[in-house]
Design goal:
Shape: globular
Number of helices: 2
Number of strands: 11
Oligomer: single chain
CATH topology: BH3618-like
Structural class: mainly beta
Helix content: 10-25%
CATH superfamily: BH3618-like
């Protein structure tokens, strides 16, 4: 299917890259239909709204940034999108690239959880203060390489 995107114009997207967020994202609850579109900057991926071409979020796999990342989510939350087996889960975090040149960050506290089988997705909120909404990606990668 052809999708009109914020950054790449019209692109072809395979059916298995369409994602439904029945509850939307925090602050964007009215937008529920999205597509995962490859970014020109691997390993980043765009979460492109199908309802509003100018609404798109950069995503990254948090495990690429921090090997010890743990997204502990209540089973009741996972059942909302039909997840019964942890192997059915794909996790992404939303990336923020500030205009002012400050640190590029990832929202480790509010990951996106995608059910690989039915392509349903929720944005979870992780309890506790272990993670923040502004996890510095470059610092984390430097720490990871230093290990």
């Amino acid at each position: 299917m052809t999708v009109e995107t914020k950054t790449k114009g019209c692109v072809e997207v395979p059916d298995d890259r369409f994602i439904s967020l029945p509850f939307g994202l925090f602050g964007f609850e009215e937008y529920t239909d999205f597509a995962l579109v490859d970014s020109e900057y691997e390993p980043l991926v765009w979460l492109q709204s199908l309802q509003e071409k100018n609404l798109a979020f950069l995503l990254i796999d948090p495990f690429l940034i921090a090997d010890d990342y743990e997204a502990e989510i209540d089973d009741a939350e996972l059942l909302k999108i039909g997840i019964k087996d942890p192997s059915d889960v794909t996790v992404f975090t939303i990336v923020t690239v500030p205009d002012d040149g400050s640190a590029v960050t990832a929202n480790f506290q509010g990951p996106l959880i995608i059910n690989r089988k039915n392509h349903q997705c929720i944005q979870a909120v992780l309890d506790g203060s272990k993670y923040t909404t502004k996890h510095n990606i470059l610092e984390a990668l430097r720490r990871k390489e230093a290990k």
